[in-house]
Amino acid sequence: MAEEEKIPLLKPYKMGKIHLSHRIVLAPLTRSRSYGNVAQPHAILYYSQRTTKGGLLIAEATGVSDTAQGYPNTPGIWNKEQAEAWKPIVKAVHDKGGIFFCQISHAGRVSNYDYQPNGQAPISSTHKMIPPQKELDDTMIEFSPPRCLTIEEIPLIINDFKLAARNAIEAGFDGVEIHGAHGYILEQFMKDSANDRIDEYGGSLENRCRFALEIVKAVIDEIGAERVGIRLSPFADYNECWDSNPEELGLYMVQSLNKYGILYCHMIEGRMLIVDDRRQIPRHLLPMRKAFNGTFIVARGFDRDEGNKAVAEGYTDLVAYGRLFLANPDLPRRFELNSPLNKYNKFTLYIADPIVGYTDYPFLED
Ligand SMILES: Cc1cc2nc3c(=O)[nH]c(=O)nc-3n(C[C@H](O)[C@H](O)[C@H](O)COP(=O)(O)O)c2cc1C
């Protein structure tokens, strides 16, 4: 297809030194199929199904330490065995010409004793516990009372992110995405609903963002700014994490990130609206998009039309798709042809099965 005939989502884009052939990104998706916190060989098929030449994929949240988990069977990247296990998966994506970033993550208090070494308390910015929450598949998850990190312990967690980033590069990933969204540990520090500290990591906006920015700096110093992105969700309220001034928080973060020359900022939209039976993205992120110097990625609630509009109007550079990409391994092709889409099955999102709800979503030609 000639360049000028392509829909906006299918136009090429240069992200730093990386040439992307289109703007449709695989959003990070926890799939709970990494037994014993080790990525499994069945992930080779799952990720390669969703790979296109020149397309960007972000791997599921991957733990930076043995205290990072909050869900069953999530992968880690804090030790050699885990890094080795990622290698064939990364290779499969590269063999098809994809670009693959690893989302490095720590759940903090979004966890319970069962996921912690020796059944200890999850760690957080606070002692405040999260009440039980309903998951997308309607299951309820319970949390345990967290232990508030002492100021002396904070550098250890920052170091875990740094080592995880190093391991990700050694496993072959093109870069890492620091998980600073959805109420996990970075947000537990950033947002005033969860941070009740009285030391230099609590109180003012600058203090609350210190932990996240120290992680950014440590990771960038370790692997280089051109290989680091971050995911942020100032407008979201997942896992009891919200902020009284999300716009100020988002702006402060992107302005600070500019100083580090981070490659991309991946932001979660506010709640989608339905107007005249059509979905409409509220576009809360415009001030952050304008203030940020690097590549901007948006996610949450986008479909083909809203994604095309967002790119055409300069609201974003790239659009990450979660549920649509999960259920449609050939999403870029379907968008190109404007074909019907498979629906995702909410009951198989997090089951441990290595095939069902994972690699058995049909392609167009099936
Ligand atoms: C099954 C599932 C797992 C998810 N896991 C992660 C994750 O590991 N890391 C993350 O940042 N977001 C995660 N998300 C959020 C998605 O990346 C995405 O932001 C969300 O689904 C909204 O986009 P969508 O409307 O295109 O689905 C997950 C979402 C789903 C449905």
TrEMBL record:
Key words, A-Z: Fatty acid biosynthesis, Fatty acid metabolism, Flavoprotein, FMN, Lipid biosynthesis, Lipid metabolism, NADP, Oxidoreductase, Oxylipin biosynthesis
Q: Offer one Pfam family short name for this entry.
A: Oxidored_FMN
Q: Which residues form a coiled coil?
A: none
Check the record and name the Gene3D superfamilies matching this protein: Aldolase class I
Q: InterPro entries, per this entry?
A: Aldolase_TIM, OxRdtase_FMN_N, Oye-like
Q: Which GO terms label this protein's molecular function in UniProt?
A: FMN binding; oxidoreductase activity
Q: What does this protein need as cofactor?
A: FMN
Per the database record, which ranges form the NADH:flavin oxidoreductase/NADH oxidase N-terminal domain? 9-341
GO biological process terms held by the UniProt record: jasmonic acid biosynthetic process; oxylipin biosynthetic process
Entry's family note = Belongs to the NADH:flavin oxidoreductase/NADH oxidase family.
Q: What is this protein called?
A: NADH:flavin oxidoreductase/NADH oxidase N-terminal domain-containing protein
Source species: Dendrobium nobile
